[in-house]
Amino acid sequence: MADKKATPAADSKFAQFIAEKKLDPRRILIASYKLESLQPEDRLIRLNRRQAKKAKEAGGASTEAKEAPKKPRSGRPVTDRAMAAALKGAPVSGPTKSRFVRAVNHLLEQKKQAAIDIRALF
User: Fold this and answer.
1) Distance between start and end Cα atoms, the chain
2) d(C-alpha 99, C-alpha 83), whole Å
3) DSSP 8-state secondary structure symbol assigned to residue 22
4) C-alpha span between 98 and 83 (Å, rounded)
5) pLDDT value, residue 71
6) How far apart are CA 66 and CA 32, in angstroms?
7) CB 3.0 to 4.6 Å from 85: which of 21, 54, 64, 90, for a disulfide?
8) Structural domain boundaries in the chain
């Protein structure tokens, strides 16, 4: 079991990439949690969206022309299960792949390396 932990599985393109860039999977999970967790401004965006929907249903069309609100964070970080699936080469959903890319790009930015796109990981 210790041998399994010492050598990461290089079965997938994702596993090869993080081994090549010397990224720790635990740091990817932590970065994803920090990036994806809901912040007060995200909750405010969701509240405004709910209130606008309720006002539209109750009062008809609104007279104010509002700009499109900024898209809030998902609130769903990469999980241990998703990391295990990505390392072993199992199928991973599209939104989860995007979360991986955001977390990896954050870590690469800290190492002063160029950002990557989703095709580099999956």
Assistant:
1) 27
2) 11
3) T
4) 13
5) 79
6) 31
7) 90
8) 10-37+73-122, 40-72
